[in-house]
Design brief:
Shape: globular
Low-confidence stretches: 1-11, 24-40
CATH architecture of the largest domain: Roll
Distance between the termini: 69 Å
Bound molecules: zinc ion
Oligomer: single chain
Helix content: 10-25%
Mean pLDDT: 87
Largest sheet: 8 strands, antiparallel
CATH class of the largest domain: Alpha Beta
Number of domains: 3
């Protein structure tokens, strides 16, 4: 009996393996067919073939394979760069469509599809010159509302995922909220939050996510709420419910989601030196190699090594602020004394150089020459609203709030934008 059962299992296994082998070879054959004989489409006399750019493909190779001359290749590369800003192809993302007037005719039109929202059409005129035209695809944008709650032992990220908020949107929301709150100390179970963000559709099909339009979080120190708003000069930013700039010139936590292992204090026992002295910054746990972004825009005024800080970078920001990043394993390429950096630009990588017990980022904010607590210091906003814009913002916010109230009652609906 046992043997029979064994045989049955082996036979089944062989069958499964064979079926898988057949399936895999079918997939392989299919891939070969689609890769080498692109799909053909006919409309009246013209015929077209679509090629998805594969890894290692170059524009010139793909064009030459379609029978275009080296001259054509040069000219197409030139107009693509000049008129469409395309200088290279991205594997598995970009698509090329070649159109001919008949089976054996030369290519008369090439459509490059670099994004679901843009098509670049290249056409060859009678003189043999190539012209380039960009066509924007119409998108239907909807604002959707998702809400969640922090549970015991939860992180904001987990709670956000449970609420159905896409990862990319969550990262943006985290970045925004981190200007106003400290995810270490301000987050407790039972807190509620919501996000209003864009989803882009084309022909009724969801293609991607757009901007975060509004966000609200019941933080320990009060409700944090922000709205995206376009100023009359055309620039967009985030503002609190009263129209004050929500994006600050410096970030309290340069590395997202990093755990604080030591807080700012006037007195603490140093883990390496043993005696008591002030801790002039905040320590964030970060594995060696974690990229360290600049907390704000500014100019690098030190990129050096000393026994305490190890490899460190110091940045002077507009106004009276400076920031310092210590114990780096290495500096980012191109970051030197005198380099201007933007907020979020990687300046180095976490490590454990200098007086340090393990890989972490030691981060300091210095205001008017005095070390301040990065978690509590009042930081200036990057952009504020003019009197006129503020008035417009308050009106806009009221309309948006009304929409949000409706979505709270019917969370499966959306706002057509
Ligand atoms: Zn430290």
């Amino acid at each position: 009996m046992k043997k029979a059962k064994d045989i049955i299992t082996t036979t089944n296994l062989t069958r499964i393996v064979m079926a898988l082998a057949i399936l895999l070879s079918l997939i392989a054959i299919f891939l070969v067919i689609t890769r080498h004989t692109p799909s053909q489409m006919r409309t009246q006399n013209t015929c077209s073939s679509v090629v998805v750019v594969a890894s290692g493909d170059t524009l010139s190779e793909l064009l030459l394979a379609q029978g275009l001359t080296h001259n054509d290749v040069n000219e197409i590369s030139k107009v693509l760069k000049k008129d469409a800003g395309i200088s290279g192809l991205r594997a598995e993302r970009d698509k090329l469509e070649f159109v001919r007037n008949g089976d054996n005719s030369p290519v008369s039109k090439i459509v490059v599809v670099p994004s679901p929202w843009r098509q670049v059409e290249l056409t060859c005129d009678d003189s043999g010159a190539w012209n380039c035209q960009t066509v924007d695809i119409e998108r239907d944008t909807r604002a959707v509302w998702r809400s969640g709650e922090i549970l015991d032992g939860d992180s904001f990220y987990l709670a956000g995922q449970r609420a159905g908020i896409p990862a990319g949107i969550l990262i943006e929301v985290y970045d925004l909220l981190a200007f106003e709150m400290d995810f270490e100390r301000d987050v407790r179970s039972g807190q509620k939050f919501w996000v209003l963000y864009e989803e882009n559709f084309s022909d009724g099909k969801k293609i991607d996510n757009g901007n975060v339009l509004a966000v609200s979080f019941q933080a320990l120190r009060g409700n944090v709420q922000m709205y995206r708003f376009k100023k009359s000069d055309g620039t967009t930013g985030y503002y609190d419910e009263n129209g004050n700039g929500a994006i600050k010139s410096l970030k309290r936590t340069p590395i997202n989601n990093a755990k604080i292992t030591s807080n700012f204090s006037k007195k603490r026992k140093h883990p390496v030196l043993g005696f008591t002295r002030a801790h002039k910054g905040v320590d964030f746990r970060a594995p060696t190699g974690t990229p360290i972004p600049a907390a704000g825009a500014g100019r690098v005024i030190a990129r050096s090594y000393n026994r305490g800080h190890g490899n460190f970078v110091k940045i002077r920001h507009n106004g009276s602020f400076e920031t310092l990043y210590a114990h780096m394993s290495r500096f980012a390429k191109g970051v030197n004394v005198g380099t201007n950096v933007r907020q979020g630009q990687i300046i180095g990588y976490a490590g454990s150089t200098g007086y340090s017990t393990g890989p972490h980022l030691h981060y300091e904010i210095i205001k008017d020459g005095v070390h301040v607590n990065p978690m509590t210091v009042k930081l200036p906003a990057i952009s504020n609203l003019s009197k006129e814009d503020k008035k417009k913002f308050i009106e806009y916010r009221k309309v948006l709030d009304d929409g949000i109230e409706k979505l709270k009652q019917h969370p499966s609906l959306y706002i057509q934008l």
